[in-house]
Sequence to fold (303 residues):
Amino acid sequence: RPARHPAPSATGAGPDAAPVETTTRLRPVRVPAYAPPETPVETTTRLRPIRERRRGRTLAVGACVVLGIGLIGGALAGVWLAASGDGKPAEPPGYAVAKELWHNAPVDTLFPRTLTAPQAGPGPSARTWTRVVVAPDAPCAAASVAPKLLAALRPLGCERVLRATYTDATASSVLTVGLVFTRADVTAQRALDGRRLATRLGQDVPPALPGPGTVAAGFGPAQRAGWWVAAPTDLPVVVTAVSGFADGRAVDRAVPADQAMKKDRADAVAQSGLGHEALGIAERLEKQLRTTALNAAKEEEQR
Fold:
């Protein structure tokens, strides 16, 4: 029997015909020529445009900043300078009390029996000194104050001089230290220019204080080897120090500590460390006096 073929579909397509559309075709929408262009919808407020900076405004701002800093600095300086009420620099803490320490403080406080200075040199070596002689307080005179220093301090009101002599831990060197108390106000004390005072004095070497029956028995003018003078700005005092050999040997010329401590020096004063001795003990006594003055000032406030 001949094979039977499926009946043709209603459209007349055979089995391999394309699928029949089941949805209606969408007609293309023509965009009118007059339609406006699409723009995104704004979701935030527009920021106002920033005007271009002008050179004049920048200069004005800079001038205001400089002026403000100057006014603040001037105000701070004014507070510091006028703190005393008369336009003079304010006294550092303990300054007024320090003027009376020469008779108010015990001798063991002003000149401790033992002084220690870590890394006083040469190098990192520490120094220790023991007191061997203490002189009674004395007036400002050539016997206790070097001539040029005495002349510089007389107009300030040179009050009193305290002196003592120490020896080092090996008893090979001796050192006379002095505390010269004045009535100077802060301005006059600063005018002494303590850092360069020794340079200005030249060879105005402080006098030595010998001690009969001690290692410093032979310490006199000819035995002075290294020396130093300092005038702290926060204390009405000048600190002096002079060192020498304990065996009584004479020295041709005493050398200021800053020169004796130079690395290129090979003389006996430099090699023995007598410059380090003079500077080290002067700095240690200055620190001791400052502490004593501050403690005394605190005690007065608590009364």
About this structure: The first strand starts at residue 114 and ends at 117. The radius of gyration is 45 Å. The chain has a mean pLDDT of 79.
